[in-house]
Amino acid sequence: ANIPYTRDDNALLEDRLIREIVTESEDVITYAALEMVKSNPGRIKAFYDWLVGKGTKIEFDNKMLTKDSLNLQIAQYLAARDRLADFKADRIAAVSIKCHFEVSTSCLGCTECLIPAFLPFGEDNEGKRDIVPVACEGDIKGALTEAILNMLQPGVPPLFGDLIVHTDEHITIANCGSSSAYWSDRSGTTAALGKIAILPQLHGRSGGAVRYLSAPGEVTAARLFRLKGKYYMYMGLGRIHDQREFTTSTHGVHWPQSLLTFDGVDHYDIFKTIPSNHMVLTSGNVIEELTQFCRYQGLPIVRCDDPASLRAFRNLIAYEV
What we know:
Number of helices: 10
Strand content: 15-25%
Helix content: 25-40%
Shape: globular
Number of strands: 14
Oligomer: single chain
Strand order of the largest sheet: 6-7-12-11-10-13
């Protein structure tokens, strides 16, 4: 999506933090999805029936979200899942898709929102399966941050999203159409599906967005980033709040939203210093575990829940730039 924060030097990452980054064209998924729509509609219908049977609300508008576009989104999810099965022996740690703009407006003209909603969920109508974290917009460091948090808490799908709004009270994180359905109630069960809705997407040419408001509770926020060739970890302990505590944003109203606070800091300072458009969350407090990981990897830490750390980082940014 022409966002520089999402890109990186893959060879450098492979030398530094990860064994291998596998890059494939969007066609691998889109062609398989189109073939599934044509040759195996029963498999798509079974997933749709499972969603509806678990209480997921679906609001067709016969423009953006139609039966055809939702079937295509389901097929994309199933095709992505099938492709991951081809790599089972390689232990894929996380996935980053390039939906916006490559798929959403050009090749298929249909967003891929069911992939980041259900690959990192752990179950579908065809049974239990591994949680696979998903980042969007080709965000490599976002996907790697998710992989790290998932390593620390294997049973908790990380939440991936854009920082879209800040107020004196909170930050709103809302991905551009989807994030793991787990976060609608944080139970780790299919009860989460009764608290999500698939609504007409706000961008792209067609498709639906997976809408929910994240369940409240303590979270660990993190973001791996690179500055002048050196990798850092931006991290802090925060809390997601019930929507009734704050006024929700009208921006991205059909998207999943999390209302996030960090005690003792000016949320505008986070907006000014966050080293990407995306942040990653996991449930609970794993600050100590993440700190130990960073020490082991030699990653300097920026604490976004510490005003002094944020000030020091702002000075570093000013000096480096």
